[in-house]
Amino acid sequence: MPYFDTASAAPLHPVARQALHAALDEGWADPARLYREGRRARLLLDAAREAAAEAVGCRPDELVFTPSGTHAVHSGVAGALAGRRRVGGHLIVSAVEHSSVLHAAELHAAAGGSVTEVPVGRTGAVAPEGYAAALASGTALACLQSANHEVGTVQPVAEVAELCGAAGVPLLVDAAQSLGWGPVEGAWSILTGSAHKWGGPPGVGLLAVRKGVRFSPQGPADERESGRSPGFGNLPAIVAAAASLRAVRAEAEAEAARLRVLVDRIRRRVARLVPDVEVVGDAERRLPHLVTFSCLYVDGETLLHELDRAGYSVSSGSSCTSSTLTPSHVLRAMGVLSEGNVRVSLPAGTTAQEVNGFLELLPGVVAGVREKLGVAEPVAAAEPVAESLEVDALGLRCPQPVIELARVITSVPVGGTVTVLSDDEVARLDIPAWCALRGHAYLGESPRGQGVAYAVRRLR
Amino acid sequence: MPYFDTASAAPLHPVARQALHAALDEGWADPARLYREGRRARLLLDAAREAAAEAVGCRPDELVFTPSGTHAVHSGVAGALAGRRRVGGHLIVSAVEHSSVLHAAELHAAAGGSVTEVPVGRTGAVAPEGYAAALASGTALACLQSANHEVGTVQPVAEVAELCGAAGVPLLVDAAQSLGWGPVEGAWSILTGSAHKWGGPPGVGLLAVRKGVRFSPQGPADERESGRSPGFGNLPAIVAAAASLRAVRAEAEAEAARLRVLVDRIRRRVARLVPDVEVVGDAERRLPHLVTFSCLYVDGETLLHELDRAGYSVSSGSSCTSSTLTPSHVLRAMGVLSEGNVRVSLPAGTTAQEVNGFLELLPGVVAGVREKLGVAEPVAAAEPVAESLEVDALGLRCPQPVIELARVITSVPVGGTVTVLSDDEVARLDIPAWCALRGHAYLGESPRGQGVAYAVRRLR
């Protein structure tokens, strides 16, 4: 039963399990206490901090442990913004950051700060020039992920860090997705990570703040973790996190090379085996273990359920049909298809057999879902019936508006137009994406009644 | 090697260990995901929430898990204050709350809110009248611990909850020290707890907010845990916390009765075996497992080290001599001696033999520390040499100023005065406490140069 969603949470690494067991016996006491159990806990905590700092590439006294990657991001953003309050209240983030960064930015904006979102291209990468253009005299902080959590694209962190450094602006790098693979290159100022993404236990995040970066922790005072992370530390989990990071790093190069081949195979074969599919993200500058693709005329939740029934656990950035999936702001920012979206992120140790099994299964599953939705022949050959047509898709949810569009496109001649009326938010993303995929021209949108009219010109 | 500091952190309960192991296998995935690993995690999370809610005495949808008791307090105070911002910005706390509550109050005051600290009597208990007097039309929230973490005194929560309820003010109860022993009585509005205090793992706090209490979570948005606790949940630890709370409760009544006898023995025999000792807290209305006493003419850190060398791990609220101990705001608020302070908190399963061993050892250890400090004969018989004397104790640290005072008190006649000049903050607490213990009159303090002059009249 292959689990292909390690970007959400990785199963516990054997080294993490071992270390956790040992630390439950040796590291349950308060490391601030003077008696032997406390001293033993303090030794474990110090050793874990040294190991984690070495893996991150910073000094031990620059690194604190937080209860999660989200806490590390929230504390890091708030502390850096407060530390540079006198400089100004301007924050820069990329449009494809993790929600923890974007939510911290929303809070900053709600409190009167200003936020610039740097856009990304179709592969999901920012251009360093985007950050150069956003940097201003009042910029307190810039944030950029090391690699994207949904599509795997690696960001130009070193270049952006250099631009920020030249402007005297600290750069916070959310390295949650990449830290297991290697240290972050470039002169970052603040770095965050999350242990359960690399096979460590849940309950541990990392927050590293370089010496010299102005940083003013927010929230009630607490003397622990240099005043940067309140609460009694989760020492057994911290020990397990540090030990597993070291273990994962020792295997990283070989495992990355192996998984990169498997992901390349998925990228190639999905595009060949599944009709009307868009494989997204950068094919080269990417995480070794992660690939995302979207299937036209399919609803993500059904696809996910069918794959689960067949034994494969993957995630989806679709928000089709049901409310249980979160719509992907990443796919939207990239301007790529979101319907029928599947993210595959392979855990360490994934075998070629497991990947081949998935590839054998996928085309049939997608075809099955399409058949249920009545799109067995998604683009029916038909005689044109009019120069222009309008499709009323009000009340229909993704992927139905696109299915309706595909059904009628050959009912207008080449050069004719189809207008789709839809009140489904996702249509704004998926209709242009469909046009790009199918080789038609997207003409734009205009408000109409309770919905929006999306106009398409048939080109072939 | 008996560990007598369970009020800091309890060793892991066997049930917690078992549950943790099982949940590491079954509960590592994201409970928000739709595939089988996610659904399994969701089932575990739901079951843990139900078990914890039953133990707390609330509905499952009123309870969320946080990364620590401190996080629960910080989030609880901030959310309640924000939820009632329109009512006013007044916060009531007792003077002996845990530092997490007092630090949250400091932050509130720094942000322009007002805070009333309700004083305590010599046993460490608040009077309900103190809360009645503090409640005002602009009171947004009141906080009261269920029992004190340093001296074990149980607070009149039910009475205070009734007063708050009548005034329409929510009461937040920090139940960290008592939750393993039983549910909190009375109509509390918000309740917080900490798993590692009852034998659960570190990394789990509880925050319960009754339906109908206005509550507005602060910080960046996050959809998890009803929006009240951000970050990826620490599910294995949550499962272990809930399972161990249930297990600890099943044993609580019998274990409380057993430990109560042992603590009574400590209270009685310490007072009898150790000269110049003050056993503090309420002898009756107290936690079953905790007792605190203070020894004149002894520095807490040395005492703690000597007990550690002899195999006993205890904690201290002294701040004598070195900076490694935190001065106790609790002892200060109670107006009792802080020097030579020892807190004994017995873990479940502590045997009578262990307690007897401690009681046999303690008098010799205290005497040894006193001898080192040159107070083998603390109150030397001497002929009065003057009506009044002044002792220059500037630059001397606790317990030296009190030792100097004791050395010269018989050098003035009964009715004569001794004035101690000291720049040690602890003298403000310990000189009056010494007077009360030794039967002399404390006349008050006045500023003098870089220090303070404390005046004492010899009465016997």
Quick tags:
homodimer; 460 residues; alpha/beta; Aspartate Aminotransferase, domain 2; Aspartate Aminotransferase, domain 1; Translation Initiation Factor IF3; seven-stranded mixed sheet; four-stranded mixed sheet; 12 helices; 16% strand; globular; transferase (chains A, B); pyridoxal phosphate (chains A, B); iron (chains A, B)
Q: How does this model look, in words?
A:
The structure is a homodimer. With about 450 residues, chain A is of the alpha/beta class. Chain A folds into three domains: about 240 residues, Aspartate Aminotransferase, domain 2, CATH 3.40.640.10; about 120 residues, Aspartate Aminotransferase, domain 1; about 70 residues, TusA-like domain (Translation Initiation Factor IF3). The first copy, chain A, is about 40% helix and about 15% strand. In chain A, the strands form three sheets. In chain A, strands 1-7-6-5-4-2-3 form a seven-stranded mixed beta sheet, with helices on both faces. Chain A has a four-stranded mixed beta sheet with strand order 11-12-14-13, with helices on one face. In chain A, strands 8-9-10 form a three-stranded antiparallel beta sheet. In chain A, strand 4, helix 6 and strand 5 form a beta-alpha-beta unit. In chain A, helix 7 crosses helix 10. The relative contact order of chain A is 0.12. The model of chain A has no long low-confidence stretch (mean pLDDT about 95). Chains A, B: This is Cysteine desulfurase/sulfurtransferase TusA family protein. Chains A, B: InterPro entries: Aminotrans_V_dom, Cysteine_dSase, PyrdxlP-dep_Trfase, PyrdxlP-dep_Trfase_major, PyrdxlP-dep_Trfase_small, TusA-like, TusA-like_sf. Chains A, B: It comes from Streptomyces goshikiensis.
